[in-house]
Design a protein that fits this description.
Order of helices and strands: HEHHEEEE
Number of domains: 2
CATH architecture of the largest domain: Beta Barrel
Number of strands: 5
Number of helices: 3
Shape: elongated
Strand content: 25-35%
Length: 149
């Protein structure tokens, strides 16, 4: 029994240590890519909603629930379709996660405007940010000194 606890604690320790080492790594989409960076000021920011497929998940679940109860009576088919729709929508919603995002209007040092859409709110209007463009776009807050000459 003591050996089992030791093995479990070693596995959990390795799991937690490996989770800590992933911070600060370069995103996989940056492999074999030209990466562009520039400084910009956030001119405006607005919330956006990413598309969701919950309706499709509900429809597929309803069809599955209906077909799974095809040989039952009408009540079985109805409840099968309802529960299938519920679980299809629930699973789809969990897999998709949060569908809220943010659209930033940025102005770089040369006066060029850029639009960036991100999942997380990392900056507010007036902030100076370092924009990193590879396969994925990311922004990081930096000192205002970088944005004003």
């Amino acid at each position: 029994m003591r050996k089992q606890y030791s093995l479990i604690s070693v596995i959990l320790s390795l799991f937690f240590i490996s989770a800590c080492t992933s911070s600060g790594e370069i995103h996989n989409s940056a492999r074999n890519q030209m990466v562009t960076t520039f400084y910009a000021t956030v001119e405006s920011m607005q919330e956006v909603e990413f598309e969701s497929h919950v309706e499709e998940g509900a429809a597929i679940g309803a069809i599955d629930g209906l077909l799974s109860n095809a040989y039952g009576d009408s009540r079985d088919r109805l409840f099968g379709a309802m529960w299938g729709a519920f679980f299809g929508a629930l699973v789809t919603s969990i897999v998709e996660g949060d569908t809220d995002g943010y659209q930033y209007q940025l102005e770089d040092l040369y006066g060029d405007n850029h639009t960036v859409i991100l999942e997380d709110s990392k900056a507010t209007v007036g902030d100076c940010v370092l924009v990193t463009v590879s396969g994925v776009v990311d922004i990081d807050l930096v000192s205002d000194d970088y944005c004003y000459e």
